[in-house]
Amino acid sequence: MTWEPRRIAVAGTTGSGKTTLARRLSRRFDLPYVEIDSLYHGPGWVPRPTFVSDVEQFIAGDSWVIEWQYRAVRGQILARADTLLWLDLPTPVSMGQLTRRTLRRRVGRIELWNGNIEPPLCTIFTDPDHILRWGFRTRNKLRDTIPELGLHVPHLHIVRFTRHRDVETWLRRIGGA
Questions:
Q1: CB-based contacts of 48, cutoff 8 Å, min separation 6
Q2: 121 Cβ partners below 8 Å, 6+ apart?
Q3: Residue 175 has what pLDDT?
Q4: pLDDT digits (tens, 9 = 90+) for 104-145
Q5: Residue (of 167, 139, 7) closest to 78 by Cα position
Q6: Which domain of life is it from (predicted)?
Q7: Rounded to an integer, what distance in angstroms lies between the CA atom of residue 177 and that of residue 175?
Q8: Tens digit of each residue's pLDDT (9 = 90 or more) over 51-76
Q9: Is the CA virtual torsion 127, 47, 107, 109 positive or negative?
Q10: Alpha-carbon distance 74 to 69, whole Å?
Q11: Rg (CA), the chain
Q12: Rounded to whole angstroms, how far apart are CA atoms 85 and 79?
């Protein structure tokens, strides 16, 4: 491959594996990484007031990997990214991953960012923004958005993965396997 990605944004629906892939790329290519959710969520799931400036400070670096989410910073990330990796997995795959992750985090009471833990599972019935409902409701939003990016962000290499094995193939091709 003729280009070496150094500023990578990882896109995908909730539960598609953005964070898992971003961490993997960080380790494999020795790229700085910050989980964007850790910058966004303050205690009690309240958005942190320094979120935008924290993201801008991180992406000012020469190389990095970060998840491409949160409308408030998507433009800034794209302006600096050289590569957008798009996890466009089938809905049953991403929803299955999201369900397993949510159950594991809730049952294990795993602390996430700034002391937050997943809410009780029963809130799926009462909270319209419960992560599982959110994931299902927003599952197709990127399918119209990302293909248009090539027209508006010409410097950006966009790589679409529709299966996990596509990621493995891509990593081997660029020497990362």
A1: 39, 40, 41, 42, 54, 114
A2: 102, 103, 106
A3: 73
A4: 999 999 999 999 999 999 999 999 999 999 999 999 999 989
A5: 7
A6: Bacteria
A7: 6
A8: 999 999 999 999 999 999 999 999 99
A9: negative
A10: 6
A11: 16
A12: 15
pTM of whole model > 0.90?
Answer: yes
> What does the DSSP assignment read for 66-135?
EE---HHHHHHHHHH-SEEEEE---HHHHHHHHHHHHHHHHHTT---STT--PPPGGGGTT-TT-HHHHH
* d(C-alpha 89, C-alpha 4), whole Å: 24
Domains and CATH numbers, the chain: 7-90+140-174 (3.40.50.300)
Smallest CA-to-CA distance from 91 within 128, 136, 34 is with 136
The structure tokens listed for 92 are 């049953």
The region that residue 17 occupies, defined by phi over 0 for left and psi between -120 and 50 for alpha, beta otherwise, is left
Within 8 A by CB and 6+ apart from 103, the residues are 121
Both structure tokens of 77: 């990330």
